[in-house]
Amino acid sequence: MSEAVREAPKKERPEFRNIHVTELSNYRMPLAAIVSILHRISGVLMFVLLPFVLYLLQNSLRSEISFAYYEGFVTYPLVKLIILALTWGFFQHFCAGVRHLVMDLHVGLDKHSARKSSATVLVISLVLTALVALKLFGVF
């Protein structure tokens, strides 16, 4: 090999790194990505809170006395917040799931439609959760 080939300068290659946790606040995700992440979070939330709901259901169905006890148990503010979190998780997961099913039919895949459908999912899930919250906390 000639000496000129051995001493050829190497080109600087660009460095591509993954996003670090400390850089997350600087990274701007599109609305569709946020809805997708919330879809996963709501699925995990429903899965984690499912034993709590099943426990309440099982014990409330034992007798009228146990139903009255758990009816009083559900009036605690912390329990209401847990039920409200589960309600949000259900509405978010359901609406985002319907959005994904529609997208599986190749409808609304362009950037503008995806942004509109993700905003619609967020608005609908938050409005439905707010209505349940108003009912749960006794406004109507």
From TrEMBL:
Cofactor note: The heme is bound between the two transmembrane subunits.
Residues engaged in binding heme: 93
Biological process annotations from GO: tricarboxylic acid cycle
Listed cofactors: heme
Gene Ontology MF term list: electron transfer activity; metal ion binding
Gene3D superfamilies the record matches: Fumarate reductase/succinate dehydrogenase, transmembrane subunit
Domain of life: Bacteria
Keywords (A to Z) from UniProt: Heme, Iron, Membrane, Metal-binding, Transmembrane, Transmembrane helix
Bilayer-crossing regions: 37-58, 78-98, 119-138
InterPro entries linked: SQR/QFR_C/D, Succ_DH_cytb556, SuccDH_FuR_B_TM-su
A GO-annotated cellular component: plasma membrane
Subcellular localization: Membrane
Sequence similarity: Belongs to the cytochrome b560 family.
Record note on quaternary structure: Part of an enzyme complex containing four subunits: a flavoprotein, an iron-sulfur protein, plus two membrane-anchoring proteins, SdhC and SdhD. The complex can form homotrimers.
PANTHER family, per database record: SUCCINATE DEHYDROGENASE CYTOCHROME B560 SUBUNIT, SUCCINATE DEHYDROGENASE CYTOCHROME B560 SUBUNIT, MITOCHONDRIAL
Reported function: Membrane-anchoring subunit of succinate dehydrogenase (SDH).
Name this protein carries in UniProt: Succinate dehydrogenase cytochrome b556 subunit
Organism: Duganella alba
Origin organism lineage: Bacteria, Pseudomonadati, Pseudomonadota, Betaproteobacteria, Burkholderiales
